[in-house]
Design goal:
about 170 residues, alpha+beta, five-stranded antiparallel sheet
């Protein structure tokens, strides 16, 4: 029953004029998998519309990080790793490369605590390294304000982000 939502959704949107054919195919095909293991039609590879292949990655990411009634959402880095692991099977290899190069686990402006005890804000992303942003440090290990310095985690490989501060 659950797997029929794509067909039911398509039936709802197929005659709506302001939704173009690409959008309608996303509704129908967003659970198709690159290796042909998806549904509703077991489409494979290039037979799945490009926008549905993009939608598939987005849908899976959202499903992993979102809270459900039966489980808490996973962390963004866990969803990221799952998608990378599905490259070539569940997901289009080229689209996963684009995802990898444009994805960021830590949005600009988020406050983070580093493994060395320092705290600061993400101020820049390093392309292709979503877990290694540039962080502007404003607090020392004891929580005291300091003269801001920037640490590029792509260059300081012995330091990691251990927590997002809300």
């Amino acid at each position: 029953m659950m797997k029929k939502h794509t067909v039911y959704g398509y039936e709802i949107v197929k005659n709506i004029n302001y939704i173009n054919e690409r959008g309608k195919l996303v509704v129908l095909e967003h659970h198709e998998r690159y290796d042909g293991s998806g549904y509703p039609n077991k489409l494979k590879g290039e037979n799945i519309s490009m926008f549905a292949r993009i939608g598939c990655i987005s849908d899976v990411y959202d499903a992993i990080v979102s809270d459900r009634v039966y489980r808490k959402g996973f962390l963004a880095n866990e969803a990221y790793e799952f998608i990378l692991g599905g490259s070539g099977t569940f997901f289009d290899v080229e689209l996963v490369k684009i995802f990898k190069n444009n994805f960021s686990i830590y949005p600009l402006g988020v406050c983070v605590k580093l493994s060395n005890g320092l705290e600061g804000f993400v101020v820049k992303h390093n392309k292709g390294l979503p877990d290694k942003p540039v962080v502007r440090i404003i607090y020392d290990e004891k929580g005291n304000s300091i003269q801001p310095i920037e640490i590029d985690l792509a260059k300081q490989t012995n330091i990691t982000i251990v927590n997002v501060i809300v």
